[in-house]
Amino acid sequence: MSGLLVDDRYRGAHGIGRYAREVLGRLDRDWRGLELDGTPYSPFDAFRALPDLAAGSVVYSPGYGALVRAPRQVLTIHDLIQLESPWPGRAKFLAYYGGPVRRVVRRAGIVLTVSETSAEAIRRWLRDDAVDVVNAGNGCSAAFTPDGPREVASDPYVLFVGNVRAHKNLDVVLRALAVTSGIRLRAVVPAGESDQVRQAAERHGVEARVDVVSGVDDARLAELYRGAAATVMPSLLEGFGLPALESVASGTPVIHWAGCRAVAEIVDGHGPAMTDAHDAHEWAAAMTDAAASPRAVDPPRGTYDWDRTAGIVSATLARAGG
């Protein structure tokens, strides 16, 4: 095989899966899928056998899964959050990024990412000025607009979209909910994490006011954003923060922690910034204010566009020889 090959195993409703769907469908270059089995997220996948690739072939991955046997591979590293995970789990990520990922990136001489926050983190991690770190940005589905149906609820609710990983900081929202009244939480999480959210809500005594939602498409998610008093995004660290973008694009403010730079850049005044990521009373006050006085925010214009992102990715792959 020669030309541009794509590791097209990145699928799903999560951030990288959605990024892959939007970008791959817009590439202006002819490409073929590698047709690999298994998961690109396994460290052992990095050393797998590949189809017979010509020396000039370029492999593109819309995620961070390295393939060390590819002649040249361009990765999209969305963030380096895994390198901040707790011990001892962090050890395997340090080995994986320090080994296969760094090797692939340096050999390609180019790596893509989705925000300037992530670009700066990748440059610090690589410590190699010969590698061009390209911020291709991110896009937002056309479904996320203030116009359209909205969720109708008997009680005001705040919306959380994400997962239960520690850096998402869902716990502060549950603790805040416990010191409020008349407000519900709707948590959109992967189906496999639904029970964890319910159990956490039960520990905080708020299970009766937490609705867990999974498996929604963009149209349904947009309805949930529009119907919310606010979206809560208490993340401690993000490479981009897609739920924040989707929320403001839908006209709904975002309650967030000021110290999470990537999210703060996206929100850009379209929602209250908390000074303390873990102060449940500060979060509770912001949630109460949002429920008592709902307001719409103006969506960003022209900044986050999938066509623009796919164009930068296409141009970068052309430079890499794909």
UniProtKB/TrEMBL annotation:
UniProt-listed Enzyme Commission number(s): 2.4.-.-
Broad EC category: transferase
MF terms (GO), sorted A to Z: glycosyltransferase activity
The keyword Zinc belongs to this UniProt entry's keyword annotation: no
SUPFAM superfamilies recorded: UDP-Glycosyltransferase/glycogen phosphorylase
Domain Glycosyl transferase family span(s) in chain numbering: 154-291
Pfam families: Glycos_transf_1 (PF00534)
Keywords for the protein's UniProt record, in alphabetical order: Glycosyltransferase, Transferase
Stored PANTHER family: GLYCOSYLTRANSFERASE WBBK-RELATED
Protein name as it appears in the record: Glycosyltransferase
Organism: Microbacterium aquilitoris
